[in-house]
Amino acid sequence: MSKGPGLFSDIGKKAKDLLTKDYTYDQKFTVSTYSDAGLGLSSTAVKKGDLSAGDISARYKYKNTTIDVKVDTESNISTTLTVSEVVPSTKTIATIKLPDYNSSKLEVQYFHEHATFSTAVALNQLPLVDLSCTIGTQTFAIGGEAGYETASGSFTKYNAGISVTKQDSSASVILADKGDTLKASYVHHLDHLKSVGVAEVTRRLSLNENTFTVGASYAVDPWTVVKTRLNSHGKLGALLQHELMQKSVLTISGEFDTKALDKSPRLGLALALKP
């Protein structure tokens, strides 16, 4: 794909990943295996309190085509076919879900040096249509997205965003929830990318409510990463991620409320084993 501005969903993604990615408060165990023929199998078991769930997924990749199949414990089947470069600079993604076939959709992404477009259409009689567009470069991008429901003839969403990315920092501003939420974030890399700091401010206009969140990530060594975050509501979270062996990762995370120390902290453990 081209070295353009990226998709609209990429705006603010760095800050979001630093503050939320890999934080888990359940017990999760994943085992994966891959063959030289391009076939991969993965099994995941998750325990949430007294409830347990799991799924089995398979991925087959051949040249510019990828097929993903996922089956969960309730026998829901999701199949995703991704094909790149059917037309130059495009990616086509078809998702079929059973038995809830009304949730199936077809998405087409187009990447250009100075613009990116994405269209997703639900595969049913009265489809929901999502459109997004981003223009600019890898350094500066501005874009918007909208969702239209043909059944009611109304917009389900319309958001806008802008981002500025440099070698050691990035900043973004997003207007979401039909103009009700304003989110600004800033990410800065230190120590040759070993340390990363992030700050995010979210304002809900209808509630006149502000949330300020700061976070950091530090690479202790090539195999260990420590992350932490704290928001203005007193929620403090921390995460330790260690690569036990190549591609096999252990993640321990926790969160507690500094304004209610009598409450028990939330703890999570995730283990992913890969060959």
TrEMBL record:
GO cellular component, one term: mitochondrial outer membrane
Keyword hit for Transmembrane: yes
Keyword Transport assigned: yes
CDD domains: Porin3_VDAC
Cross-referenced PROSITE patterns: EUKARYOTIC_PORIN (PS00558)
Listed Pfam families: Porin_3
Name of the protein in its database record: Mitochondrial outer membrane protein porin 2-like protein
Species for this entry: Cinnamomum micranthum f. kanehirae
